[in-house]
Specification:
The structure holds 2 protein chains of 2 kinds.
Chain A lengths: L4 H23 L8 H19 L1 H7 L2 H24 L14 H32 L7
Helix pairs in contact in A: 1-2, 2-3, 2-5, 4-5
Chain B lengths: L1 H21 L3 H21 L3 H23 L14 H18 L17 H11 L5 H9 L1 H22 L7 H9 L1
Helix pairs in contact in B: 1-2, 2-3, 6-7
The chains are: A mainly alpha, B mainly alpha.
């Protein structure tokens, strides 16, 4: 798709805003609609748009399959690790109130961490799905 | 006013569903699926379920459409005409649908505060979650804190799905140009 000048320029303009919106949805999920899952999908859709415009090879240089594998696993690890951390600090598994001095601050921190984990895994898996399917055949060939 | 919006959206929804079932061109069918998701998302918004609507719009309209398009690129773009008239299938669908509609007559009205589902744990969430958990968005409190185990399970499911795709398809590194030629002739 190297000749689609308008698409390329528009995509370049849009992608930063999509990424920014994904981060907003991720970190504003406590206050408005949204959360890790939606943010992960939106973040992934920015990368998928990039892949559609600039090709799979270029996109894989931006986020490599190895990085995706590590990200997908580390999201679950962050989530589970938060739960274990709560246990180490004397609470039950995923009892966030133990994470900080006051229960509310602990809950806030815990929710922040697990949403981060969800977002990371969802982003990585969505891009993985797309890489997996589009890598079967080069659309430009 | 709400009832008009609901009627319009539900009409659009059934029209798109019928179109998906009738259209043989898979590209059009996929686009119709996307529209179907978007209309569903609008319906969720009218029910004040913005988080669900958000997910439906992002996943159903965005990712699912892209994945179906990517899958279509690997197969043909036209649905094969079935060699028979699927009348039995139609009968089964109609009967099941009627039974389901009959079943909804027993359900409490939409938004009925006395419905059983609003009597169990929902009052606790609404009354206590600001003191117990904190976030103003109660959906986040429920999903992330009260039901943290469920969300952990969901994350694990997504991770497993990713692993399966990785195991089955690889991540686009495979040089399978020989297969492509075969696929094109098929």
């Amino acid at each position: 798709m190297h000749d689609h000048l308008i698409l390329r320029i528009i995509a370049k303009m849009f992608i930063p805003f999509i990424l920014l919106f994904a981060l907003y949805v991720q970190f504003h999920g406590d206050y408005g609609p949204g959360g890790g899952f939606q943010a992960g999908v939106i973040f992934a859709s920015a990368l998928i748009l990039y892949t559609l415009i600039f090709g799979l090879e270029t996109a894989m240089r931006v986020v490599s399959p190895t990085a995706l594998r590590i990200l997908a696993a580390s999201g679950v690890l962050i989530y589970g690790g938060t739960g274990v951390l709560c246990m180490l600090r004397g609470g039950n598994f995923l009892e966030y109130s133990m994470l900080a001095a006051t229960p509310l601050a602990g809950q806030h921190l815990g929710i922040f961490l697990i949403e981060l984990g969800v977002g990371t895994t969802v982003f990585a898996v969505m891009v993985m799905l797309f890489y997996g399917f589009s890598g079967r055949k080069d659309p430009s060939s | 006013m709400d009832i008009f919006i609901d009627i319009i959206l539900l009409t659009l929804l059934s029209a798109t569903a019928l179109a998906v079932a009738r259209i043989r061109k898979l590209f059009c069918a996929i686009m119709m699926f996307g529209i179907f998701s978007l209309v569903s998302a609008c319906l969720f918004v009218t029910m004040d379920a913005v988080d669900v609507a958000f997910t439906e719009a992002a996943v159903g309209t965005g990712i699912a459409t892209i994945l179906m398009l990517a899958t279509m690129a690997l197969t043909s773009t036209e649905e094969k005409r079935p060699p028979y008239q699927p009348l039995v299938a139609l009968l089964v669908v109609v009967v099941t649908g009627s039974v389901l509609v009959y079943g909804t007559m027993d359900l409490p009205d939409y938004g009925d505060p006395m419905a059983p589902i609003h009597q169990h744990v929902a009052p606790r969430y609404i009354q206590q979650s600001p003191e117990e958990v904190g976030p103003p968005n109660m959906v986040t409190s429920v999903l992330a804190s009260y039901r943290g185990f469920d969300t952990l399970g969901e994350t694990a499911v997504i991770f497993t799905a990713g692993l399966s795709i990785y195991a089955l398809l690889g991540l686009g590194r495979r040089e399978n140009r020989d297969h492509i030629v075969e696929d094109d002739h098929a």
